[in-house]
Design a protein that fits this description.
Elements (H helix, E strand, L loop, with lengths): L11 H24 L6 H14 L3 E2 L11 E5 L2 E3 L14 E10 L2 E10 L5 H27 L4 H15 L3 E2 L5 E3 L6 E5 L16 E4 L2 E3 L5 E3 L6 E3 L5 E3 L2 E6 L2 E4 L7 H4 L15
Antiparallel strand pairs: 1-4, 2-4, 3-12, 4-5, 6-10, 7-8, 7-9, 9-14, 10-13, 11-12, 14-15
Amino acid sequence: MAHQVEIELKTPEQIGLMRRAGLVVADALARMRAAVAPGVSTADLDRIAEETIRSAGAIPSFMGYHGYPASICSSVNDQVVHAIPSPRQVLREGDLISIDCGAELDGWHGDAAITVGVGEVHADQRRLIRVAEDAMWSGIAAAARGARSGKGRLTDISFAIQSSIRKAGRYGIVEGYGGHGIGSAMHQDPFVENKGRPGKGPMLRPGMALAIEPMITRGRPKVAELDDGWTVVTVDGSVAAHVEHTMAICDDGVWVLTAEDGGRSRLGDLVTAREPAVSGTT
């Protein structure tokens, strides 16, 4: 029997609560980005994330999730996603690290990821990051345009991500992993693939909140999970990049909940003019 998709639609007030969680994630990622340097361990970064999240009165979404033992996923070079932080994983000049972080505040979640170069990195590595980021923003923009027209469907996001990557060159688009619904739980319906034909799946509607997260490689897209039951690596050993933002569809545009500016610098007037109230702040 096919999985019945159940999408949680949020009220503007609930989106405001998600914005609070999203800003906690944004702060944690900004602090970790500033700390990335040769000689820093992924456990050091995990400590920064947990301290930042808990000091904001939030809870690390990842900690204990299906037994996951940390506050972030810290995937280095050929590790695509879900790598567990370790004091033995010490960053070196020229590495790429993808940092995925989530926070729950008052029962609502935010989830985002960045890929960062360690020290001086090769131009091809910098381009890999840029291609992933551009694809993510293309997907978010497609969601905004689709919701505004009233005709958008979920796979319009997938198609926009794929098209952006394909125009940039020969990159592997990792299959089997992708974005997801988010809200009162960290992972919800629907699953958001990073490739596919447009015009399929649920209609894009106000109240939907989605985590958009492309994962691309410098080589082939095939991946494998290691024996730890978490870490996903490229089979051919090629370097990967993973980026992510949580976004919500509002009546007149989108709001990127884990971007400090709500996404305005990348999306312009596709961002809602009526920013959701952030409950509990002054």
